[in-house]
Here is the input.
Amino acid sequence: MLLLNPSLGLIVALALIIFVALPFHEFAHALAAYRLGDGTAKLFGRLTLNPLAHVDPMGAILIVLVGFGWAKPTPVNPLNLRGGRQGEAIVAFAGPASNLVLAVAAAIPLRYAIATDLQLPDLLFGMLQFFIRINILLMVFNLLPIPPLDGSKVLFALMDRRTEMQWRPVLEQYGFIILIAVAFLPILPGGTILNVVFDTLVDPLFRLLVGF
Here is the structure.
């Protein structure tokens, strides 16, 4: 990533994560839930694009300190959703899908600039690349079928009811431990499972969107 000013670039990068990518993700959950009949998020003031409604102070601090954090989880009452488990899956999928939308939106001007040899400032060029990558990463990470990630809700909706009742309590009880193992244990030739997933999906998707 080329940055005109590394310090300024880092500040902008962190701001994009904390105040754009993560809040938009949570807003998408809230909007999907509202459209499907659950007004819980709206009741708590979360049906808004105002990033301050979604920022979690501790999650934001950790993003600044270690590069990993979170926003406030969007409150959803599955019992209010039309469609049952399918409705819950749609609400869950809306978050990662919103990150893909942001990645595509940022890729359009970058792809145009590359195709036309338009010279962009180094800072802008680097920020567009970073914004695309971080949103692809957020999409892929959140679609992992491990509780409490969004992908687990999609997985449960694809199971028959009996299988879900057998596996959902177990996966939800041990999901965090499984997630830690996936992220940090180098059990595959390419490293951790998470590293292999990212290497397999994030870079190819980035090249597909940007065109190089």
